[in-house]
Amino acid sequence: AKSTKSFRIVSDDLSHDSAHSCLALGKVKEWVDDNLSVYSKVTYVNDGAASHFKNRYQLLEFGKSDCPNTHWMFSATGHGKNACDVLEDSSSIIPHYLVRNNLRTNPESAIRAGRDFVTVLSEKLKGVHPISLKEKKWLPSVS
Q: What are 76-100's pLDDT values in tens digits?
């Protein structure tokens, strides 16, 4: 059966730089390899953030794809205003779930970090697989 998988990368790291993007895509690839036995097409969708993606490190990682039918789509940042924001309008739905959870639970069970977000909200986010970047790994420099 044909299906689409969407991912949301969650991290407590506030420096969303090129290394962060490479690690995030690595985590998605790891999930796909572990959970999908066969896939015929991979499409990366980027809604802007040129500093994250349009650089030589990211292009090198993108070129390592095992899937011959791999595409990379760029668009302007839309935050719910364009075709790239198809994750149930994740820019508004995900914060809604987070706030609702924290208002309905005791302080000890509140979502306070990226790993809590993934643990608590994984079941509630239909069609989106949240993946936590637990730590920033060292990436070798590319010259």
A: 554 554 444 444 444 456 666 777 7
Q: How many CB atoms within 10 Å of residue 102?
A: 16
Phi, psi (degrees; rounded to nearest 5) at 129: -105, 105
Q: Where are the beta strands (DSSP E) in the chain?
A: 6-11, 42-46, 70-74, 128-133
Roughly what angle, to the nearest 10 degrees, separates helices 114-121 and 90-104?
90
CB atoms within 10 A of CB 1: 2
Regions of the chain where pLDDT drops below 70? 1-2, 15-16, 44-59, 62, 72-96, 134-143
Q: Across the strands, what pairs with 71?
A: 43
pTM: 0.57
